Amino acid sequence: MLILENVTRRFGSFAAVENVSVQIPQGQMVGVIGRSGAGKSTLLRMLNRLIDPSDGVVRFNEVQVSSLKGAALRNWQRDCAMIFQQFNLVPRLNVLTNVMLGRLNHRSTLLNLAGSWSRSERAMAIMALERLGIAQTALQRAGTLSGGQQQRVAIARALMQSPKMLLADEPIASLDPLNAQIVMDSLKSINQEEGITVITNLHTLDTARTYCERVIGMAGGKVVFDGPADQLTADAVRMIYGAEGEDLSEGITSTSLGSSGGTESIGSLEPAA
Ligand SMILES: Nc1ncnc2c1ncn2[C@@H]1O[C@H](COP(=O)(O)OP(=O)(O)OP(=O)(O)O)[C@@H](O)[C@H]1O
Predict the structure, then answer these.
(1) How many CB atoms within 10 Å of residue 23?
(2) Where is this region: Disordered (predicted)?
């Protein structure tokens, strides 16, 4: 169970995230939605301590995440893998090596300095790539792959960490609808098959509805909605997106994603850009 208690992050006097308290049981798939600047990325980054809360507490089971230091903090960051909109691969290295880099925090410093990978690490990386359907790219330079393939490499690298939780910061914002669907299907299957908690920031409401059992809506740094996707009523959408919610149309489907699990197609509710 991940627990946030009155978590606040200020930049100067401005509160990007204010007084957020939520509990996320292990194995949930959670979508965090909200307008640009609502505080979604800041919230996610505090979970794996890329940035620290100004106030409040983040706990994972009995561990007080927000006060970890040194090796314990590195262990937490290993358990709490993160993928990003811009993939963050090393473009000049091949795909296999990029994926194996996810294993660094499991190795001794000496082994890392030696710079060699074991047979079992290679096999694990190939298996992760196979799971994501891109094993054929293993020896290609990562920078030569399409955006959708690169994001799948990033997910494979995250899996190499054997994480308890996968944080995804706008994982499909740079992708076309087909690649976005492939990436979201991958996150969903990892969530369902490995029981890994997935918390993902999303720009499009329809994606959150399609893939996430729970949606957290943020506005002005605060949580203004927290519930199952099917409770995202028009009123809830207005709370999250404010006046722009008035302009949302059920009919816009250009970025609508239907999961490969055969989810019934639903109308897209996408805020005006
Ligand atoms: N390092 C920083 N210094 C100052 N202000 C920051 C910093 N990081 C974020 N902010 C501010 O905090 C607010 C929330 O930013 P955040 O990136 O969390 O929003 P977001 O909901 O993820 O937006 P987007 O969807 O555009 O990524 C914004 O007003 C942003 O300008």
Answers:
(1) 12
(2) 251-273
Domain count, the chain: 1
Instruction: Establish if 271 belongs to a structural domain.
Output: no
Q: How far, in Å, CA of 138 to CA of 174, rounded? A: 22
Which amino acids bring their CB within 6 angstroms of ligand 1? Answer: 11, 16, 34, 36-42
Mutate to test the pocket of ligand 1, among 32, 41, 174, 218 (most ligand atoms within 8 A of CB): 41
Give the global pTM.
0.88
For 88, left (φ over 0), alpha (ψ -120 to 50), or beta?
A: left
Q: Residue 185 and residue 208: Cα distance in Å, rounded?
A: 12
Write the residue with the smallest CA distance to atom 26 of ligand 1.
36
- Span 212-243, pLDDT tens digits: 999 999 999 999 999 999 999 999 999 999 86
Q: How many CB atoms within 10 Å of residue 265?
A: 11
Q: What does the alpha-carbon distance between residue 270 and residue 273 come to, in Å, rounded to a whole number?
A: 8
47 in any annotated domain: yes
Evaluate if residue 106 carries a pLDDT over 90. no
CB 132 within 8 A of CB 166: no
Contact 102, 161 (CB under 8 A): yes
Q: 154 is in which domain, residue-wise?
A: 2-247
We report the CATH number of the domain holding residue 99 as 3.40.50.300
